[in-house]
Structures are given as C-alpha cells and as structure tokens.
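Extended Data, panel c. Modelled sequence:
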Amino acid sequence: MIPLLLLLACSRPFLDAGPCQERFTGPGIAECEVPGWEDRAYDLVLPPDYDGETPVPLVLALHGGGGNKQAAERTTCSEGEVEDESCLHKHAQDNGYAVLFPNGTGFGLLPELRTWNAGGGDDEWRCASGKACERGIDDVGYIQDLLDDVEGRAAIDTSRIYATGLSNGGAMSHRLACELSDRITAIAAVGGANQFTTTGTCAPERPVPVLHVHGTADPCWSYEQGSPDCPVGGGDLPHVGVDRTMDEWAALLGCDGGTVEEALPDTAQDGTTTVRITWTGCEAPLEHLRVEGGGHAWPDGYAYLKEKTIGPVPRDWGNELIWDFLGAQEL
C-alpha cells in the first residue's frame, strides 16, 4: 500500500508531548502507552483550565490510513504547523475540552505508517484499511482499553466522549458508532464513510448523533461508490458511497421527516462551497456537510499532498463547525 498520508507521517514538527503521569492533576500534553497494546501509544492534550478534578469532554482524533498520531495532530492545522491557532487541539484548549491522538497499527519496514480496521474486506468490498483490516486487528477492543486508560489517568466527562477522523479514521469513527455506542457519544467523520456495514451489521445500543463531512471531488474516497483514484493502493475494490452511509444512519436513527438543506457562507472563495443537510424526525441528530468541489482533506486543514492528488482543501470553515456539532451532544 502506498500510504495516503505519507508526507504527514514523515513531516515535523509534532506536539511536544511530555512523560505520562499516573494521574494528571493539571493541564499539559503527554504521551502514554495503552496497557496490553505494544507500540500503540497515544498523545493526550488537556486544556489550560484542567484542574484534575472537574471532568472535561474528550475528542478522539483518528489519523488517516498510512498516518499516525503525529500526522493527525497536523492534519487539522491549516498550514500543518502544530502551534497554529487553527488546529483542533488549539481549538480544544480555547474551548475547554481534551483531545486524544491514538496510533493505529503499523507493519513491516515502515511501522509508523499505520492503519485502522474500519471494516469491509471480501470479494466485493475494499478492506478499510490495509493490513489492520486484512489481519482483523481488534481496534474496537483497542479503543475500549485506550479509553479505560485515559479515564483512569484524567478526569474525563464520560457522557461527552466523541470520535472524529479523516479517511480511514473517519470510517473507523463510523464503526465505533456502530459497535461502541455505550461510550462514544457522537461522531464527526471526514472523508471516510461507513465501510463496516458492507460486511458487518451496525447495531448501536443507543441512537448515536452522526455528522458526516465529504467532498464531492474527493478522489481518494469518492463521494459515489467507487475505487480510489489516488496513491492508496489496494486494487480495484470500491469504498462505500456517502448516500448509502447516510441512508443507513437515517434508517437506524428512525428519521421520518425528510431533509432540510442550507447553503453555508462562501467566505474563502476557494472553488468549494458547503451545503448542510439535516435529517428531521430522528431519534438523534444526523447531519451531512456536503463540500461541493472539495477533496480528500480536513476542512481548513493541512494540504498534505498536491491538489492534483487529493483535490482542493475547503477553507470556508473548519474545526469550529465540527466542535459545534459534537459539543452539543451528551449521553
């Protein structure tokens, strides 16, 4: 597999993470190991007003296929600079929530090029993504152990734990909503639809609020069902399309009132525009931000490869809309 986020995995700088603590009593950034999971450390960013006692919301930020936790830290920054105020972790620090950047599984000669087992994988559907999926890595189990470890070290509001991610990380967010709904409050998936349902059954224990973000000009996870047309490798098997994923969630959430569409302001004039589609009559919020002309990138995020490879990066909005959706949800 030629990793989509190769440049992210090999670039610097990264967050300056300090040593892990048995119990965090104040703000900061630290790298910790997950017990029982070799070589799958995570970075935890706690907000400046964290006091070790008052529980804070937590966003789980999952890297794309071929990336890692450091790559995820840069993906959400407009210029890829982790000190920039545009980054997800900077937004978190300004708004009083924590961010968790975990590692998927690496293999072979390039172990820092990691993937998540987001599901799929048979004679008809792509395995998302790579060897983590092909080898059946128990990433749902990993996330459970990861959350156990974080909750044991820091004061986390367990009614407000969210998952987000790009591409393979977005698809993994969908899988967590299907299989870990007792712990994941809501998800915001970017550029990665629910591949898990192509070979597995999505049966959440509770209605999970879902936001899905996707560009209509995404060559790496095409908006319509199809095979990728960018350096991700893996043959000709397709990714699931966005319409199927949204229809499935609408059925699972009992949405029976139709949809409402709203055009968001075109402030950047970057060749992309965004339409917010909201399903009504649902047991939990369901929204889709359809980025007309948008590529395989985090909104107002890092253009980690050239536009001819991943398509345009939308600049009209960014982490604030993702947090607006997630932060409004509670178990």
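Confidence is low (pLDDT under 50) at residues 1-11. This feature is highlighted in the accompanying rendering.
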